[in-house]
Amino acid sequence: MITRQFTITAEVGLHARPATQLVQEASRYSSHIELEYNEKKVNVKSIMGVMSLGIAQGATFSIIIDGHDEEEAMKGIEALFTNEGIAE
């Protein structure tokens, strides 16, 4: 299992387009991927789950990945966050 914290840098937060991009990236992997924010955990492969958290700019959250391709999945998510200016 891998856990990493990120901070939202996008002005719109993790809303609509950035959330959709995250769900699409997470869906490429077979590992179980969760996002934890304010003591709530959601499945990152669920757009409704991610959107329900309402994560705003400046907020810190964790991505938790467990599975056989967890390292590849974390690298893909980190690259998405960096390349799209979503989080750091």
If you had to describe this structure to a student in words, what would you say it looks like?
- By secondary structure, the protein is an alpha+beta fold.
- It has a single domain (2-83), classed as Histidine-containing Protein, Chain: A (2-Layer Sandwich), CATH 3.30.1340.
- The protein contains 3 helices and 4 strands.
- Strands 1-4-2-3 form a 4-stranded antiparallel beta sheet.
- A hairpin with a 2-residue loop joins strand 2 and strand 3.
- Helix 1 (16-26) runs antiparallel to helix 3.
- The mean pLDDT is 97.
SSE layout and pairings?
Layout lengths: L1 E6 L8 H11 L5 E6 L2 E4 L3 H6 L7 E7 L3 H14 L5
Antiparallel strand pairs: 1-4, 2-3, 2-4
Helix pairs in contact: 1-3
How many individual domains?
1
Q: What's the rounded overall pLDDT mean?
A: 97
How many β-strand stretches? 4
In CATH, the architecture is 2-Layer Sandwich
- For the terminal residues, how far apart are their CA atoms? 20 Å
Structural class: alpha+beta
**Highest-level CATH class:** Alpha Beta
In N-to-C order, the SSE pattern is EHEEHEH
Provide tags for this entry.
single chain, 88 residues, alpha+beta, Histidine-containing Protein, Chain: A, four-stranded antiparallel beta sheet, 4 strands
